[in-house]
Amino acid sequence: MANSNGVEGLHVWSSPEGGCKIDIGKQIFCNRSLNMKNILAVGFDMDYTLAQYKPETFESLAYEGTIRKLVYDLGYPPELLEWTFDPKYMVRGLVLDKKRGNILKMDRHKYVKVAYHGFRELSKEDKVGTYGNTLIRDSFDEPDYALIDTLFSLAEAYLFAQLVDYKDNNPGKVPEGADYSHMYKDVRAAVDLCHRDGTLKQMVAKDPKRYINEDTSIVPMFKMLRASGRSTFLVTNSLWDYTNIVMNFLCASHTLDGSLSCNFDWLQYFDVVVTGSAKPGFFHEENRANIFKVEPESGMLLNTDNGTPMPQVGSTSPEVLLKGLNKSCRVFQGGNVAHLHKLLSIESSSQVLYVGDHIYGDILRSKKVLGWRTMLVVPELEREVKLLWELRDMRKQLRLLRDERDLVEDQIHHLKWSLKFESFRDDEKQKMISALGELESQRDQARLAHQQAQRECHQKFHKIWGQLMKTGYQNSRFAHQVERFACLYTSQVSNLSLYSPDKYYRPSEDFMPHEFHILPL
């Protein structure tokens, strides 16, 4: 079978009993066995999980809003307003060195493999001199480093790189005392200002279709999970007003003229909705945040006793009856995971599967702190696995070139050892020295051919940063985090609808993105 890109053979069986094939770009990959029959509740994040934002519009909107805050609120030069944003330049999994103004990509062992100062690539000598000569490995964590692990962080990473170059070329134009670290702090402050004044969400609310991808498989996925008898819940940091607009768009509530109808029909797909959750703090049971019931029609917050509605003053009824609202779904703001478990009657945290996009905000906390089962949404994966298939011949050639180089280097090592520790006649020794010279020439040619082929393959994925899940031949830092904390991972949340709700996910013995070397031909 061939897909729209003309790629053949990119299919896997969804399950032996399913009898249907799934494009490999939509496959769900498994790190740890997970039997869905043991899952009683499936939960979702909203932003960048259910709602996939368009980088060319949404991230550009975030970038432009941040620039305006830097200029009008934080004293940066007005010429920044003329800057533009390239949404394809940065990728997830990078690390920003705040003190030095560098952007790094490293492997799972925290060795820096690609490094840029602003938009200037560091030489191998500078890279090794800065990051490769320490006796104690740097942790590359806060406060000196910033981790670019969400798609929303790509715009601020790009802006940081621009400011680094700007400071280097115009040292007198940045605010006094603003070193690289201070500039990053200002970027973060500007992003927070955009969130606090509602700039971004107001624009999205006016025209959701401009900023959010439509996914017609989301509602069938909800229906499938609900029909299987499982509870479903939504936990988002967004507040109720914005959540209702986005979920209406995703669940396609339209009027007769095609315009978006804002109602509460989408609530029928959930048992519990928690807005304003303040993740990752929400995942700590000791977090004593109050939980309020949200009245959907007005957005009013009502007091609760650990999630149980309390009688309002002047009313003998603990519930505010809402016309036309599906009573089976309860909407809340705040609280913590203990409240959620109580509302869903969850007895064991391993009965919960949570789907999110943020390794630290969604996946790591829910996995390490709670023991929830986890699924990470990685939109970039769809393109990456298709490229892995398309480039299988090139990657096989890379392996052959590497093997050729290694073989020659072994022969050189053997000859040098023999010349140093064994005795030979002068004529034999001269032949060996001549052979050594030829081998060293072959090694240099093989090394150059391998480096050129590797760079060409690297740039097929991304011109600057290469493959998301690899750094050279090692797993990338991002892939390492995915492997450690995500039980499952996939390109989009609605891929769940392609599988049986009772599927037993097992780690594949065939090929997975972070283990991929050469596919059998």
UniProtKB/TrEMBL annotation:
Keyword vocabulary terms for this entry: Hydrolase, Magnesium, Metal-binding
Keyword rRNA processing: no
Keyword Iron on entry: no
Coiled coil: none
Binding-site residues for GMP, renumbered to this chain: D47
Organism: Gossypium raimondii (Peruvian cotton)
An annotated Gene Ontology molecular function: metal ion binding
Family designation: Belongs to the 5'(3')-deoxyribonucleotidase family.
PANTHER family membership: 5'-NUCLEOTIDASE DOMAIN-CONTAINING, CYTOSOLIC PURINE 5'-NUCLEOTIDASE
Annotated protein name in UniProt: 5'-nucleotidase
Cofactor section: Mg(2+)
Annotated catalytic residues: D45, D47
Annotated binding of Mg(2+), by residue: D45, D357
Cofactor note: Binds 1 Mg(2+) ion per subunit.
